[in-house]
Amino acid sequence: xxxxxRSDLDILPLSLGGNVFGWTADRDTSFAVLDAFHxxxxxxxxxxxAYSAWVPGNSGGESETxxxxxxxxxxxxxxxxxxxxSQHPEFRGLGAQxxxxxxxxxxxxxxxxxxxxxxxxxxxxxxxxEETVAGFADLVRDGLVRYVAVSNYTAAxxxxxxxxxxxxxxxxxxxxxxxxxxxxxxxxxSEIVPVAEQYGMSLVPYYALASGFxxxxxxxxxxxxxxxxxxxxxxxxxxxxxxxxxxxxxxxxAHGASIATTALAWLRAQPTVAAPIASASKxxxxxxxxxxxxxxLTGDEIARLSAxxxxxxx
Length: 314
Known about the structure:
There is one protein chain. By secondary structure, the protein is an alpha/beta fold. An eight-stranded parallel β-sheet has the order 11-10-9-8-5-4-3-12, with helices on one face. Strand 8, helix 4 and strand 9 form a beta-alpha-beta unit. Helix 2 packs across helix 3 and helix 8 packs antiparallel against helix 11. The protein is globular. It starts with a strand and ends with a helix.
């Protein structure tokens, strides 16, 4: 187990991504995935109020609703739920009133009294940051949210948020959610990690498996399906990208671990990373995800993967 930043949130160092619930995973599959994750020791679930508004027929909030139904049905202990605000079609932006309305809607869908970790999903340049920081602080004060976090913010804007929070006595963010993996490292490591280290925040990276590329599924530059996910992953199948996959496979075999497990274990071992986020549309995918939380790579193996990834950056 590990802790998220300066919080008292104890988690297995792996977060189950809820973006697929209500999208590529229907209710029964979502429940089966959540059951398998929790049975294997997982207790940290990541979602957002906007998931999955992009699916025809959906309006947003589908993932939270399914997670809420699962929580009500199973009544699991010590589960930490993170969700996000700013992208739901009915609650766009980070104005104070909008944040509160969105949080109340998320609480209702999740069926909980308090959101454990609440992210500002994307920066909102049209709303003064002072208003956003105050809005989040009010949610913590009123017991709707336990801890504040930011997602997709630049290092400069994170520092600005922290300065405003310190000046007003508001709670500082305890986590940052960036796009970070073996093929997308440079900006995060040079800019976001130093801020996290300075202020005791944890990274909870998304796209931890690079849209599936870091599972070894895509060994060709030709997409195997018409989905944007497949196309994005296939584009990473450059000679350097495939060499990275080969290195992941070799190191994984030495541990009896899959390529995906090994890629997640590398990410978990990076400075300030508390828990990579990975999703599963099929219950049989969960075991490889969970295995990453206990796979301890050697220093040499981590260095080999880091070196192999240098020329595979997307």
